[in-house]
Write a structure and sequence with these properties.
mainly beta, 11 strands, four-stranded antiparallel sheet, globular, 54% strand, 114 residues
């Protein structure tokens, strides 16, 4: 079972990026995006249930949109109005629908800088 995150990069403040997380199998229930800035703990950014119900931390509300396409085994994070403080490595994770085990993707770097 693998999760593959992609879509990170360098973007100017106010810009947008879309992250993708593709699972090797269609077995995940809840999924989420986390980020870890240099010198800080990993934190949850947004999560989404199997049925597509999203949830966001306050700093992401109104700027980020999480979604998933279960037919493609892929979860997305659309990030708009990016700020320098959004700079971090972004990780996706997913919880196995049967075993409840949690799997992590490898992370993708997002850098917001002018």
């Amino acid at each position: 079972v693998q999760l593959q995150a992609s879509g990170g990069g360098l973007v100017q403040p106010g810009g947008s990026l879309r992250l993708s997380c593709t699972a090797s199998v269609r077995i995940f229930a809840d999924m989420g995006w986390y980020r870890q800035a240099a010198g800080k703990q990993r934190e949850l950014v947004a999560s989404i249930s199997l049925g597509g119900s999203p949830d966001y931390v306050d700093s992401a509300k109104g700027r980020y949109a999480i979604s998933r396409d279960n037919a493609k085994n892929t979860m997305y994070l659309q990030m708009n109005s990016l700020k320098p403080e959004d700079t971090a490595v972004y990780y996706c994770n997913g919880m196995h629908a049967v075993t409840r085990a949690v799997y992590w993707g490898q992370g993708t770097q997002v850098t917001v800088s002018s």
